Automatic annotation (TrEMBL):
One CC-aspect GO term: plasma membrane
Keywords, in A-Z order: Cell membrane, Membrane, Transmembrane, Transmembrane helix, Transport
Localization of this protein: Cell membrane
UniProt protein name: MFS transporter
CDD domains in alphabetical order: MFS_YfmO_like
Membrane topology field: Multi-pass membrane protein
Species of the source: Cohnella lubricantis
SUPFAM superfamilies: MFS general substrate transporter
């Protein structure tokens, strides 16, 4: 009986499970890799998003730089002086420079796209009005429409730069900012050639062309850019201003010098383009049309290429950023100084101006990376806007001041800009010292 009852009872089996730390580690490692891969996967799909962002500075530059080659023709057609024709560039840039900080604040309060989209609409619409002003030979209407364009321009590139900071981090952010600078520079390369080509149709064709590019950029921004949601609500004005004050209290010295360096670089670049545009049509060169546009594009092409490479290389390396900033400014100062005497051969002269532009290409991505990294997302729009504002003012005063200096002598032009570059080099060398790893 005992045997029978024991058989009726279910058998109990001891189950022993061996777990391996190695297997567990391997699985967790694979999990981390999968998570990493999934986090990187969207970055591959963001190519169109970066392209959409890059169209914004491209369109902005087309709206200004395409006008540079036709300024001598504009003077003749409207029967105005060289200085008056330069105001077509200056008034646009001054208006933009003054409105940019307001646009930056609004983008921090609302959203980047809420400012960027209306800005592109205003910019393109005022471009059409500029075209009709040129057709009607109305100088004052042209100035007014260019000022309205400046208001639209204020909400473009600075907001795009802040949006890059919102969308990307670390090395990706530096690379994206390098692409933004390269796109900005590419516009400067294409613009003189495109402006000269369009002038073959009719001299004012450039005014009607860039609203078309503006419309394409507007569509790209609307449909291809997905702005991240904000975790916090908009900060109150008083608290916002206090945050900005804290930023300048902590980092004000190097920030202000960086702003100055960016403005000086753009002042020099646009001043040199204005200088070249005028002297190439005079004796002994007598170069006009597309050939003039292609020559104007040479220095800027050097800047664009180096800006893209610099943005890709520096990542967040503060040591490299400092070296390249100083080397860039040293190249600018040395080449512009040499141009005081070596300006009789066009080949040598263009070569020196290209070296200066290469220096600018080294400098600008470094400044942009440092400036966008110094503040939190909530104040980034204002800081990048202040930076862009001063760059615009540099663009604004380049052509008229170069025009005034040209009336004194061509040598005076390069004594002035080489001195400016040298002083800027010393300021950056001694006061802009980023950490080994920029935020």
């Amino acid at each position: 009986m005992a045997t029978s009852s024991s058989k009726d009872k279910p058998e109990r089996k001891l189950q022993i499970v061996f777990s391996s730390d190695i297997a567990s580690s391997s699985r967790s490692s694979r999990g981390r890799e999968a998570a990493s891969a999934s986090s990187k996967a969207p970055a591959k799909g963001n190519v169109w998003q970066i392209i959409a962002l890059a169209t914004v500075p491209l369109v902005l530059v087309l709206g200004n730089s395409m006008i540079v080659p036709i300024l001598p023709t504009l003077s003749r057609e409207l029967n105005i002086s060289s200085f008056q024709s330069s105001l077509v560039i200056t008034l646009f840039s001054v208006t933009a420079g003054l409105i940019i900080p307001v646009a930056g604040y609004l983008s921090d309060r609302a959203s980047r796209k809420a400012v960027l989209i209306p800005a592109l609409i205003i910019y393109g619409g005022a471009g059409v009005l500029s075209g009709f002003a040129a057709v009607w030979h109305s100088y004052w209407l042209l100035l007014c429409s260019r000022a309205i364009q400046g208001i639209g321009a204020a909400g473009t590139t600075a907001i795009a730069m802040a949006l890059v900071g919102d969308l990307y981090k670390d090395a990706e952010e530096s690379k994206a900012l390098g692409i933004i600078e390269a796109s900005n520079g590419s516009g400067k390369v294409i613009s003189p050639i495109l402006g000269s080509l369009l002038a073959l149709i009719v001299w004012y064709a450039a005014f009607f062309a860039f609203p078309i590019f503006c419309a394409l950029s507007l569509l790209a921004v609307i449909f291809l850019i997905k702005e991240p949601k904000r975790e916090k609500g908009p900060i109150q004005l008083k608290a916002y201003v206090q945050k900005i004050r804290e930023v300048f209290a902590k980092d004000g010295r190097w920030l202000i010098i960086s702003f100055w360096a960016g403005a000086a670089a753009m002042f020099t670049l646009f001043g040199v383009l204005f200088f070249l545009s005028n002297i190439l049509e005079d004796k002994p060169y007598n170069i006009e049309g597309v050939w003039k546009g292609m020559i104007l594009a040479i220095p800027v092409f050097g800047m664009v290429t180096v800006a893209y490479i610099t943005g890709a290389v520096i990542k967040k390396n503060g040591v490299l950023i400092r070296w390249l900033s100083n080397i860039g400014l040293a190249l600018m100062a040395a080449s512009l100084c040499a141009a005081i005497w070596l300006n009789h051969s066009l080949y040598v002269f263009i070569g020196l101006l290209t070296v200066s532009s290469i220096g600018t290409g080294m400098l600008l991505p470094c400044l942009t990376t440092m400036i966008t990294g110094v503040v939190d997302k909530a104040q980034r729009g204002m800081i990048t806007s202040l930076y862009s504002s001063l760059r615009f003012l540099g663009v604004a005063f380049g052509p008229p001041l170069f025009g005034w200096l040209m009336e004194i002598s061509h040598r005076t032009v390069f004594i002035t800009v080489s001195s400016l570059s040298f002083v800027t080099f010393l300021l950056v060398l001694f006061f802009v010292k980023p950490a080994k790893q920029v935020k």
